Q: What sequence folds into this?
């Protein structure tokens, strides 16, 4: 219909009316029509130049790798495109919804490493997620490089997120985030990627103002609504594809300057990645101080802790600079980088993303070894534990809460209410009430705690018994008795019901020779019968060894002896 209207207008313009169109007139009409079609396909983005920092931009935009993208790209889902890319396999598993993004070991990867990515290096870094630069138009376009990366990482278990630059152009000028044409271009591009490539996530970069949000009416609302639009669009196509964003790390003023409010963005991000680039903020090392007297580790710690407090449970994954700063790309020493990672993890970060591949110290390796319990108090199988005992579990390295599935159960399998806390490498468990005399089992379930790197502990358990040992109240014959019949049946009475322990009970003559006996228990009485009559006029010693008898909960008797002498007649 649109083209027929153009033809009608051309006919009127050339005065043709309803008459016959000459060949010459037809050629002119076709030429004009082709110009019209070109103009339709070259609508450029018009950006309101409301400040000197944001410029009008037409045709080209810059992404984060100094490449360009045309805003007027018509995004289509042609049959050929679907056939070409739908078979591309993601490295990670996208079949499960609500993937847990709480232990990310990530790295940003530019297109320059597409054909020389070292998988062994990724394994050395224990990488779980790659954020791969996806140029929307400029060479190399994501259509040419994203399939290569997905193929290279196939079967590694590493998830691939499409890293998308949002509001900056080829000249480094910012595009107004409120620009409807630019927003639609980004939505169309993201839609194409999610529909035609099996990526694990969409990662938004430069999704902000350049420090001028306060100059705009509802700048924060503009950023939040755009991220919400991306989130809604992607989840309607594939709910398992994660949405994340690289955010500025400036705490309470972040929304004022950049339009990025952590709390408002949280519902529309599966995880957020604050760029805590200490070098860019004047911190030269983990222990060195900047002009404010704060070291890099402390700054990372306090910054992450604040953002976590504002994220309403949405995972916060620390984006860390692997080199000194943008003006000095010397890699940070491995030990210092590990300190930065630990600082983030210790303050609630759900992992880390390193900026970037190619600028990381060759000496860096990331801990992939699970923490181990090296001591527990009370020790395993301890008896006679006080009823108010505070339990302490010591690991071989610093730990943090994982799933927190830690249980203390009694002999009936009933869980006992407890409180739990962690300090360094020590887990402290306190029963909320005194423990009755019983046998108890402490269970640390797999992943209940992790080390600072997020490596989960394996299933571990220990047991102990509360209460006191059984005590002997009487023995017949009494200690040091004389003139005892040679066929005497010996009876030992306890203060509580008993059961067999090690059963190491001896009756020895004066020469130290063990006499054959039989033993039996009934309630709180131990009965000992010599198999033969004892020798007249001989001293005998009864020895009940430690642990030979226990009470019903398992508390063992301590070593006990008693002697008697048989009658000489």
A:
């Amino acid at each position: 219909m649109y083209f027929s209207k153009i033809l009608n207008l051309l006919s009127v313009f050339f005065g043709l009316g309803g008459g016959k169109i000459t060949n010459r007139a037809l050629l002119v009409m076709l030429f004009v029509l082709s110009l019209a079609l070109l103009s339709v396909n070259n609508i450029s983005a018009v950006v309101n130049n409301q400040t000197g920092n944001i410029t009008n931009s037409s045709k080209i935009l810059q992404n984060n790798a100094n490449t360009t993208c045309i805003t007027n790209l018509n995004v289509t889902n042609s049959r050929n495109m679907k056939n070409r890319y739908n078979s591309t396999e993601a490295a990670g598993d996208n079949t499960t919804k609500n993937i847990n993004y709480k232990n990310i070991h990530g790295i940003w990867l530019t297109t320059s490493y597409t054909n020389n990515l070292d998988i062994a290096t990724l394994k050395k870094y224990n990488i779980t997620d790659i954020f791969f630069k996806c140029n929307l138009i400029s060479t190399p376009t994501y259509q040419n490089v994203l399939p290569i990366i997905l193929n290279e990482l196939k079967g590694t278990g590493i998830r691939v997120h499409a890293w998308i630059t949002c509001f900056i152009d080829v000249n480094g000028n910012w595009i107004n985030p409120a620009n409807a044409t630019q927003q639609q271009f980004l939505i169309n591009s993201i839609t194409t990627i999610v529909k035609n490539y099996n990526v694990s996530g969409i990662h938004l970069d430069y999704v902000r103002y350049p420090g001028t949000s306060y100059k705009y009416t509802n700048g924060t609302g503009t950023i939040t609504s755009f991220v919400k639009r991306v989130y809604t669009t992607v989840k309607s196509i594939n709910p398992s594809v994660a949405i994340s964003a690289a955010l500025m790390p400036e705490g309470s003023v972040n929304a004022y300057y950049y339009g990025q409010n952590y709390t408002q963005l949280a519902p529309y991000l599966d995880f957020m990645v604050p760029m805590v680039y200490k070098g860019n903020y004047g911190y030269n090392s983990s222990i060195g101080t900047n002009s404010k007297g704060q070291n890099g580790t402390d700054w990372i710690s306090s910054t992450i802790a604040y953002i976590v407090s504002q994220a309403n449970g949405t995972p916060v994954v620390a984006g860390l600079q692997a080199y000194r700063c943008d003006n000095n790309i010397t890699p940070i020493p491995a030990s210092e980088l590990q300190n930065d990672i630990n600082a983030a993890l210790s303050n609630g970060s759900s992992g880390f993303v390193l900026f970037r591949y190619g600028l990381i110290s060759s000496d860096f390796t990331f801990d992939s070894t699970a923490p181990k319990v090296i001591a527990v108090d009370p020790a395993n199988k301890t008896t006679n534990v006080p009823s108010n005992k505070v339990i302490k579990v010591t690991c071989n390295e610093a730990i943090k809460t994982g799933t927190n599935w830690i249980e203390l159960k009694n002999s009936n399998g009933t869980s006992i209410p407890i409180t739990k806390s962690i300090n360094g490498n020590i887990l402290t468990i306190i029963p909320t009430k005194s423990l009755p005399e019983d046998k108890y089992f402490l269970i640390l379930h797999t992943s209940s705690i992790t080390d600072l790197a997020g490596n989960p502990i394996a299933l571990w358990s220990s047991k102990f018994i509360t209460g006191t040992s059984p005590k002997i109240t009487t023995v017949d014959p009494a200690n040091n008795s004389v003139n005892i019949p040679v066929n005497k049946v010996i009876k030992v009475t306890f203060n509580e019901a008993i059961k067999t322990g090690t059963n190491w009970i001896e009756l020895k003559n004066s020469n130290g020779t063990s006499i054959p006996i039989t033993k039996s228990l009934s309630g709180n009485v131990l009965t000992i019968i010599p198999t033969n009559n004892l020798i007249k006029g001989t001293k005998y010693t009864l020895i009940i060894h430690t642990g030979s008898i226990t009470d019903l909960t398992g508390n063992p008797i301590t070593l006990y002896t008693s002697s008697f002498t048989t009658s000489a007649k």
About this structure: The first helix runs from residue 2 to 13. The chain has four domains: 2-40, 61-355, 373-466, 472-566. The domain at 472-566 is CATH 2.60.40.1220 (Immunoglobulin-like). The mean pLDDT is 84.
